[in-house]
Amino acid sequence: KEIVKLKALNKDNMRTQMIQALRKKIKDIELVVDVLKQELQIKGEMSQQEVNEYIMRKTLGGPKRFRPLTREELETKINELDKKVVDTEKKLAKKINNNNDSSNNKPNNNKLNNNNLKENNTQSS
User: Fold this and answer.
1) Could you give the 3-state DSSP secondary structure of residue 104?
2) d(CA 55, CA 76)
3) Nearest-10 Cα torsion for 19, 24, 56, 78
4) Which residues of 67-80 are buried (b: 16+ CB within 10 A; e: fewer)?
5) Cα separations in angstroms, 124 against 66, 110, 111, 113
6) Cα separation of 21 and 111, whole Å?
7) Average of per-residue pLDDT values in the chain
8) What is the Cα–Cα distance from 57 to 70, expressed in whole angstroms?
9) What Cα–Cα distance (Å) separates residue 33 from each residue in 50, 72, 115, 121, 124?
10) Of 7, 41, 62, 100, which residue is least crowded by CB atoms under 10 Å?
11) What is the largest CA-CA distance in the chain?
């Protein structure tokens, strides 16, 4: 029984070591990709958006199948959503300014209503 337990622990330890090694490999590869992207931007005189589009074109050349989005695709989506947020904020600020301007141009109905109430109260007394 003890031998079986030791073998199981050893297998778990090996799996953990393999997972850690794969994570380290992924981190190293991502570092290389980032350096290559920077070099493309500098030497190729490309913007980050152009580099991301270039990478997406090269990685999507294969057969269509279900796959997760790449970092470059996610960055593109983030940039698009950021632009939408800025545009929406501008529209909202414009509407608020228009509402403030239009409310300043209208006569103050609250003062009129207060005056009418005072007149009604004095007449009824």
Assistant:
1) helix
2) 12
3) 90
4) eeeeebbebbeeee
5) 79, 21, 20, 17
6) 75
7) 78
8) 11
9) 15, 11, 73, 80, 84
10) 62
11) 103
pLDDT given for residue 23 in this prediction: 93
Dihedral sign of CA atoms 75, 77, 80, 81 in order: negative
Query: What is the reported pLDDT for 125?
Result: 43
Interatomic CA distance for residues 82 and 60, integer angstroms = 25
Extended beta strands in 36-79, E state: none
Residue 37: Cβ within 10 Å count: 18
Region of residue 57 (phi > 0: left; psi between -120 and 50: alpha; otherwise: beta): alpha
Do residues 55 and 70 touch, judged by C-beta distance below 8 A?
Answer: yes
Place 82 in a pLDDT band, splitting at 50, 70 and 90: very high
Q: Say if residue 64's pLDDT is above 70.
A: no
